[in-house]
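Q: Predict the bound structure with zinc ion.
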Amino acid sequence: MKNAVYFAATMAVFASNAAALVPAAREFAAGEGVLSITSKVSFTEIDWYDFDRVGQCLAEVEKTVVRDKSLPPEGYRLHVGADSIAIASADDAGEFYAYQTLRQLATLTSSNSIAIPRCIVRDWPAFRWRGLLIDEARHFLGKETVLKILDEMAMHKLNVLHWHLVDDQGWRVEIKRHPELVEYGSVRPCSVRFGTHASWKPPAHAMEYELNKDRYGPFFHTQDDVREIVAYAKARHITVMPEIELPGHVRALLAAHPEFICEGATHGREPAVAWSVQKEVLCVGNDDAVRFLEDVLDEVCELFPDAPFIHIGGDECPRTNWKKCRKCQARIASEGLVDESGLQAWITARMVRHIEKKGRRAAGWDEILAGDVPKSAVGMVWRSSPEGGAGTEFVSAAEAVGRGHDMVMAPNEYCYLNYMQGIEHDPYPYFSVWPSSSVITLEKAYSFDPCAGIPAERRDRILGGQACVWGESTFNIFDFEWKAWPRGCAIAEALWLGDERPGFADFLERMEKHRIRLLDAHINSAPL
Ligand SMILES: [Zn+2]
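A: Predicted complex:
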């Protein structure tokens, strides 16, 4: 086979510098000259990077596309010749990633032509979970912005959108059986100052934000919006994982159902405004509250019919109210639980089993693995140590994989891109709670190792990792993109290549060129 012979003769691992691929291709052999493609339709600078336009242009060149099951999942081989393109891929996703590589390789040479350097590429991902979290509970981004983010993910071969849809400060997804959730949960009486970042010096600490006295909302995604977003993601081989937080981070839910708070506590008809961990959590001793959660999860499963994972949160749940509540204490007694930590493990296990019955798997922040939780539950590590945040029980990835759980790594020290990035004259506001971990430079993000501290024989339980752009200080697409890129590019490369990544100096050289590509595509990337 021609390709194989060519590879043997000219194998040039990581010679992708000239092409500035981000993430780098696993193997890249540069040929001589370029493939020129002239389109029947003219491009403009603005539509050049448009997802569909590139496809249109590539449709006008002779191509062969075949499946090759000998390639790893999501893998592809790409041969750009003098007048044709050949793609072999393991599956549909692999073919899609070959096109993403072509998109990055192509340059606009005139109003209706592009040039792609002749080359042979062989490529596949190190990790199957390459995620990005967006947090619309704190600030709503809206459908158009989410669609743009999905394009940006596809460009970097990221494949899981972790959609943080509900939290103390907002409920952003329509639930038809319970319209009161968005009626009360999607409006805050006021919010932090936003929309003025051009002239605004960010405060040193998140809690110093000024309040904007205007009502914030109602902001939520209708079910039609959700279906459109999920379909758009699917076309880009991105799985959407909705997150419905429980039993803490539920103040938007409690705004709709104040009766679901513990005895002795009260709740008003509005979500929280402050960002701190809230003591108002769900009364887990209340049967109606538990059934309500199951009912909501049922509708979420219907709304996301292809989602293999439903995230149930589980982090930062203070138990002060549970200690004083007769219903919660009665549950502890009737279920034979040790104490309030057992109560959280009980509700977690019940929801994990409920989601199992729907043929899905539950995911949750690492606290969910503190008790005896079914093995189908996937843990998401957000701290590297018990001191790393305001959570309750800390379960390390090493311990969890030892107990047979699959894990996804999102330790805040590497992955929380709402933390400052350490560049000069940065006009954007950040949200950082823990000073020791509050700066994530590009180099730090690049050094993210999802398998750090995991014994070699258990590394297959590390599904991958994800960048998280939390929403406390992320008000719109400009804030999001500034925080997400280029650090998200570094994390994407860490997840695509794992231990095979070529090193920060090599990445930086490519990233200089890739940032221009991002800016050309109207993506507000921060400087390096
Ligand atoms: Zn209670």
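A: Confidence is low (pLDDT under 50) at residues 1-16, 194-202, 204-208.
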